Amino acid sequence: MPVRATVWRGFYQDSVVLMHVAAEVRALPGVRLAAALMGTPANHELLSSAGLATPDSKNATAADLVLAVDAATDAEAEAALAAAKGFFDERRRARESTGRALPRTLDGALKQMPDANVALISVPGDYAKLEALTALRRGLHVFLFSDNVPVGDEVELKRLALAQQRLCMGPDCGTAYLGGVGLGFANVVPRGRIGCVAAAGTGLQAVASHVATLGEGISHGIGVGGRDLSAEVGGMMTFFALRKLADDPSTDAIVIIAKPPAPEVMPQLDAAIRTITKPVVVCALGAAVPASAPATWVTTLEDAAEAAVAGIRGRAWTPRSFTDAAAVRSRVAAIAAGARPRGALLGLFTGGTLAHEARVILEPLVGPVNIDGAAPGSAHRVIDLGADEFTRGRAHPMIDVAARDSRIREAGAAADVAVLLVDLVLGRGAHPDPGPSLAAAIRDARATAERDGRTLVAIASVVGTDGDPQGLARQIAELRAADVHVLPSSAQAARSAALVLDPRLASRLLSA
Amino acid sequence: MTAMNVGAANREALERLCRARPAWTAVRPAREAIGLSGRTLLHAGPPIEWKRMCWPMRGAVRAAALFEGWVRSAEEADALAAAGEITFAPCASHGAVGPMAGIISPETPVLVVEDRVNGTSACSFIADGPWGHQLRFGAHGPETLAGLAWVRDVAAPAFATVLEREGPIDLASLMAQALSMGDEMHMRNAAATGLLARRLAAPLVAAAPNAAELEKILRFVTRDNDQFFLAWSMCAAKAAARAIEDLPGSTVVSTMARNGIEFGIRVAGLGERWFTGPASVVDGLYFPGFTAADANRDTGDSAIMETYGLGGMAMAASPAVQKIVGAKSFADAVQTTRDMGEICVGGNPLFPIAPLGGDGTPTAIDIRKVVQTGIVPRINTAIAHAKASRMIGAGIATPPSGPFVDALVAFGERHPG
Amino acid sequence: MNTTDVMPQEPLRVVNVGLELFARELEAQGVEVVHVDWRPPAGGAEIAALLGRLGD
């Protein structure tokens, strides 16, 4: 098959735009493979491993765009390259027709908008610190979506932010809510009385969505990045954000969503919480609940939302395993009555916090859960496809759903996979309609498994609200139509998966 | 060196460039004005030795050696140069600027421009001989030599007399006016040339030796060459830029120049040190009968105009140039000037661009911004024939980004964190 | 913006550097955004660190 590549020198496009172009080109007649990438070292490796590298493509630098196709014929390859050029030309014309000149730098943007107060930064990690430094020096609050930023740089950025009395949300911050506005990946939730400080993105999305479902809203949701409570960063931004929310008159309760804090940071966190007179809920996934904590410690995102809502409503609250235990019971019974699924669990997640939460829930129930995608199929695995290693040079899997869909199809042929556990994250920034392709991938995987005489059970949870552009009800319906068990939360989905793997757990999980 | 110091030093650089008020004060031999002595020739661009010089520069060396009487033939000139008997140095290091090949010899009459605000001065040679036979493009035949002699013996003394009697001619306000009349003062100096001719005409009547020479001088100034004023533009820009040639802590570009082989820059905070990369092939429009295959690579000190915030930086002010240098539309030209604004410290209020609401031309190129944005200064320029001693077109030179990166690295080494 | 603000002043006014998608999503919420036509610095990642140190 002819492989053709062209290089556009000094032509930068972001990873989401490139994903759309590659998808359009891939859909053209005769095209087997297509890639549209900047010429970074990592992307050159991708091109090589896909068999799309050419002598021309190898000369591309990180500032040059490579478009490579593998097509049935020379003519189709050339036509595909021409179509890609047409796509970029169209984008350029559309932009020019707005008559608005785009600035090339943050400083250039500040000339157009001198009173800007927030910088949203999502450039590749190698360049993120530079942009964030500039923004902080100019007195802007920073939302730093970029990942692959070294922890030393994070410390430097947050020190500067504190000196400037500005928020540095991130690096690797997926979501924030500031005064009712969602930044990054954000579900459509009402403005309300609950303030959040969150490690990364999907944890905040899940809590905000649950809060909305319970009829409350979010005052501010401040992302701090997954490493903020590590020993190196020392909780700099968490403590700063907590003080902000404690002082904020529109916030009546505070939820902290975190990874287990480093032991050295715990006393400070404890002390910070003690100064707050509002109800505080801590969801530090995987952390042991301290004996005498000044806050309500919970173990799941769903519980965090419920506890916070109970807090502002002045009601008592106790956690429960399932919203509808009877439905789960009958579902598990139906599965147990049929061909018993034999094998391990494979979790394929787009949300990092959701993946982490699933592991934390599953391990006490079903034993060790591996996070390594390369682990043998006989082990339980939960993989976060939004992790740095999967996103270098490409869009996040919540936008670029193709990578997970293809892994799901592969899982159908894996003899040892019996239960497929997935998340589906809706909201602004995410794929506009991810349900149908996820459902199709699961159908294909199940068909493959059944052809091989195996049963593949698919379990999902959807993070979303009725207000989300994708429509929560419609996305759930798409999955249910593909016979996917859709649970109301990621925690319930994980528990449900554990029940399928080991029905004896019913006595522990379904006793209520 | 803290970050704050760099910012302050760069604002100082901008201030010095903006407050410059260059005026034409004298015409004198380079020997006096620059202190050239012996067999020394100044050339355009970063340092270069004879054996690496491009053809137009070698041609200009021959012309200068013949003009100085060091040799009797072009062959002898080559031999003299090859034997190491001629000392070469960049104009840029001697307070001078030379268009195209930029060769200045001790007896070359140079115009002297002074900026009394910053206490600086700069020199350049006055255009020689008639169209198509100029030293700057490498011509070294009898017509060129006759033109050089005439400038030395007739035109230069007449200009000197005008200045002695009239006093300095203010170039700052003349150039500001020319900008408002559509000159960007690199590719187009039509308005400025006209304004200078208007200023010189009456005084020349008394300063010229006779009516025939008066007519010749006036034709020399006003002939079909809109670019006569370029040497004055360049001197004014150079005089301003000399105020930042040694400004510790600043990352502002103090020199951009090409020698036909290499493009080079110097940076205010790094003094005399050059950072070079290959001179670019000019993307341009060619006169009928010529193509890019005939062209020499980018050459000349005239990129001092962009260093000062004019030329390519001021595209939005010069509708007439936009087509010549390939701007597809006025919006394109505005975008160019906005892009240049992204790599400059600020604007020069002396040169307001009316179509941009009176914003000053983008001034004081910051190598940090060049490196960060990947936007290189855009240089409007003439194109020299590689072997036929004439201009064959005009266009845009896009310099390599390497020298800016190298300079930034050197700056970082000089100011370790 | 003064430093005594509890939170970023409202309304938010955002400079977006990176994925254009995020600028679009903010516009959809009625937020004023200036999107930067960002490109990687000349000289690559090592130079970016130097720029950060020499920035102001």
The sequence of SSEs of chain C as H and E is EHEH
**In the CATH hierarchy, what is the superfamily of the largest domain in chain B?**
Enterococcus faecalis V583 domain
Separate helix tally of chain C:
2
What CATH first level of the largest domain in chain B would be assigned?
Alpha Beta
Here the CATH topology of the largest domain in chain B equals: Enterococcus faecalis V583 fold
- The coarse overall form of chain C would be flat
Largest sheet of chain B: 4 strands, antiparallel
Pair with the biggest interface = A-C, 63 and 43 residues
Radius of gyration of chain C: 15 Å
Widest beta sheet: strand line-up of chain B:
5-4-1-6
Distance between the first and last residues' Cα of chain C: 19 Å
Shape annotation of chain B: globular
Number of domains of chain C: 1
Helix content of chain B: 25-40%
Q: Percent range for helical residues of chain C?
A: 25-40%
Mean pLDDT of chain B: 93
Cα-atom Rg of chain B, whole angstroms?
20 Å
Unreliable stretches covering 5 or more consecutive residues of chain C = none
Summarize the structure.
The complex is a heterotrimer of chains A (512), B (417) and C (56). Chain B has helices spanning 3-19, 30-33, 55-68, 74-82, 142-166, 171-180, 190-207, 211-222, 230-242, 304-307, 319-324, 330-342, 367-373, 402-414, and strands at residues 22-29, 40-43, 87-90, 109-115, 120-125, 169-170, 253-259, 262-267, 275-278, 283-286, 299-300, 344-353, 359-365, 379-384, 391-397.
Structure description:
The complex is a heterotrimer of chains A (about 500), B (about 425) and C (about 55). Chain A is α/β, with parallel strands linked by helices. In chain A, about 40% of the residues lie in helices and about 20% in strands. Chain A is built from 19 helices and 19 strands. Chain A has helices at about 15-25, 40-50, 55-60, 75-95, 105-110, 125-135, 150-165, 200-215, 235-245, 265-275, 300-315, 325-335, 350-365, 390, 400-415, 435-450, 470-480, 490-500, 505-510; strands spanning about 5-10, 30-40, 65-70, 120, 140-145, 170, 175-180, 180-185, 190-200, 220-225, 255-260, 280-285, 295-300, 345-350, 370, 380-385, 415-425, 455-465, 485. In chain A, the strands form 4 sheets. Chain A has a 7-stranded mixed beta sheet with strand order 8-7-10-9-11-12-13, sandwiched between helices. In chain A, strands 15-16-14-17-18-19 form a 6-stranded parallel beta sheet, sandwiched between helices. In chain A, strand 9 (about 190-200), helix 8 (about 200-215) and strand 10 form a beta-alpha-beta unit. Chain A is globular, with a radius of gyration of 24 Å. Chain A starts with a strand and ends with a helix. The model of chain A has no long low-confidence stretch (mean pLDDT about 90). Chain B has 2 domains: about 20-230, Enterococcus faecalis V583 fold (Alpha-Beta Complex), CATH 3.90.1710; about 245-415, v583 domain like (v583 fold), CATH 3.90.1700.10. In chain B, about 40% of the residues lie in helices and about 20% in strands. Chain B contains 14 helices and 15 strands. Chain B has helices at about 5-20, 30-35, 55-70, 75-80, 140-165, 170-180, 190-205, 210-220, 230-240, 305, 320-325, 330-340, 365-375, 400-415, and strands at about 20-30, 40-45, 85-90, 110-115, 120-125, 170, 255-260, 260-265, 275-280, 285, 300, 345-355, 360-365, 380-385, 390-395. In chain B, strands 5-4-1-6 form a 4-stranded antiparallel beta sheet. In chain B, strands 9-8-7-11 form a 4-stranded antiparallel beta sheet. A 3-stranded antiparallel beta sheet of chain B has the order 10-15-14, with no helix packed on it. In chain B, helix 6 crosses helix 7 (about 190-205). Chain B is globular. With about 55 residues, chain C is an alpha+beta fold. In chain C, strand 1 (about 15), helix 1 and strand 2 (about 30-35) form a beta-alpha-beta unit. Chain C is flat, with a radius of gyration of 15 Å. The two termini of chain C are about 20 Å apart. The model of chain C has no long low-confidence stretch (mean pLDDT about 85). Chains in contact: A-B, A-C, B-C. At the A-C interface, helix 1, helix 5, strand 4, helix 6 and strand 8 of A face strand 1, helix 1, strand 2 and helix 2 of C. Strand 4 (about 120) of chain A pairs parallel with strand 1 (about 15) of chain C, so a sheet runs across the interface.
